[in-house]
Amino acid sequence: YLLKSEQLGGNVESEFRIIEKQRKAWATAVEEYHQKLVHNRLEGVLLYGGLLLFCAWFMHAFPENLSIIRLTGIQLLNTVMLALFVVFFVVLDTKLNTSLLKEAIVMSKERATELFTDIQNYDQKVEKKKYLKVVVLSIICSVLLIVVKPTAFSFAMGIILTVVSLNFHKIILMLKIYEVKQEIQKEFPKWLFDVALLMQRNSVDGSIQKSREIASPVLSAEVKRIGDILEKRPADADAYMSFFADFNILMIENTMRSLRSLALGEKGSNEIMVELMETNLKRLEKAEKDSLSLKGDLSSVVELVPVGLITIGTIGYCIGLLIVALKTVLTLVG
């Protein structure tokens, strides 16, 4: 790209400045992601280690005649928990030491096409029939719940379960729309950055048309659509303002309005361009963070795994304690 820019204009300082801004946004996002991984490893080890200390205290908290340390099952349980502690640390450490230069996760073209098709071709009657089994099963469960245990709580839960099942098709649609909107909001600042880079050597309309080749999967169909319109009708208002208009994303609406002002060469275009770039830089940084977060920082694993494992271990201790107590009682009786 820089070679082409140099051939066209000879001076690529503007391009380098814009690329440097993107590099800084990416570097900030990666640094924060790396710090999060370091924090997760430390937090996970401390949490797991602290819970293991609790287990050690639990085993020594009872008199000698109720001691569970010598039980074979308890020894095996302790061995498993200690082994899993090593595995847990290795997983967190491996995640920390993987390459941060790998591409962040982006929605595939197949998934984007599937979601857009489902949203655009949504038919309420058809979708209702698709989830009819879920509705019938939910109603049966609600009736059984009320009949078996006729309380106010059971009645309320039955109503909630029935209402949710009757609107299940709408909930699925809302989840699909939410998934698409999240991906659009994540990828749009990156696309706008590419357009701004292309605008150093092309018109706004031309930049959007050229961006058809590099737009991410979730944006590609819509970028191609407005690009084709602008190729025939430059600075067409409908092309700019219809860009993802069905999703009502204010960020996109304001940006496309600004881009059209630039395309028309309205007064104060330089100020519009500066403001657009500064605003998008903040969005770009957030988009980079969102993209990296999809690679997984194991935040939930750090909290859930140790607590879950130690909970199972504590239950095992309680069972062991119950067995020892029963043996002691039987010995005294005998």
Protein described:
The chain is built from 14 helices and no strands. Helix 2 packs antiparallel against helix 3, helix 6 packs antiparallel against helix 7 (152-166) and helix 8 packs across helix 9. It is an all-alpha fold. 22% of the residues are buried.
Brief write-up:
The chain is an all-alpha fold and 334 residues long. Helix content is 79%, strand content 0%.
Beta fraction of the residues?
Answer: under 5%
Q: Helix share of residues?
A: over 70%
Biggest pleated-sheet summary:
none
Q: What string gives the helices and strands in order?
A: HHHHHHHHHHHHHH
Shape: flat
Poorly predicted spans: none
Distance N terminus to C terminus?
90 Å
Number of E-type strands: 0
Mean pLDDT: 81
Count of alpha/pi helices:
14
How would you summarize the topology of this molecule?
Elements: H1 2-9, H2 13-59, H3 72-96, H4 109-120, H5 124-130, H6 132-148, H7 152-166, H8 168-198, H9 204-210, H10 217-232, H11 237-241, H12 250-264, H13 269-293, H14 299-333
Helix pairs in contact: 2-3, 2-13, 2-14, 3-14, 4-8, 6-7, 8-9, 8-13, 9-10, 12-13
Highlighted features:
334 residues, mainly alpha, 14 helices, 79% helix, flat
